[in-house]
């Protein structure tokens, strides 16, 4: 593997960042500094932590940053459920984004297991 950019989980998480930014544009304006900001930060944190982990020399450090990415993915999953429950996005869009984050969580879990 040449870099983190070769990881499918990194690629999928980058696509998910874009999807989160698009989805949150339609949220109520009074949520701009609330759940919108939290969701965007959590989404960006996932590929960022994957990249930082793969920039490390030791497996233990790599696993630490992948675990951070997994935590951010779980946080984003919760925020997506909250957004769906508050009707901030159409149910179909929410379900699609939740399904995508479940896939990212599964991939991160498998990657962490393979390195540990």
Q: Regarding CATH, which class?
A: Mainly Alpha
Query: How far apart lie the N and C ends?
Result: 17 Å
- What oligomeric state do these chains adopt? single chain
CATH homologous superfamily title = 23S rRNA-intervening sequence
Poorly predicted residue ranges: none
Query: Structurally, how many domains make up the residues?
Result: 1
Proportion in β-strands: under 5%
Q: Characterize the main sheet.
A: none
As for the CATH topology, it is: de novo design (two linked rop proteins)
Number of strands: 0
CATH architecture: Up-down Bundle
User: Radius of gyration in whole Å, from Cα?
Assistant: 14 Å
Give the number of helices.
4
Element order: H for helix, E for strand = HHHH
Class by alpha and beta content = mainly alpha
Structure description:
By secondary structure, the protein is mostly helical. It has one domain: de novo design (two linked rop proteins), CATH 1.20.1440. The chain has 4 helices and no strands. The chain has helices at residues 8-24, 35-54, 59-85, 91-115. Helix 1 (8-24) runs antiparallel to helix 2. The model has no long low-confidence stretch (mean pLDDT 95).
SSE topology sketch:
Elements: H1 8-24, H2 35-54, H3 59-85, H4 91-115
Helix pairs in contact: 1-2, 1-4, 2-3, 3-4
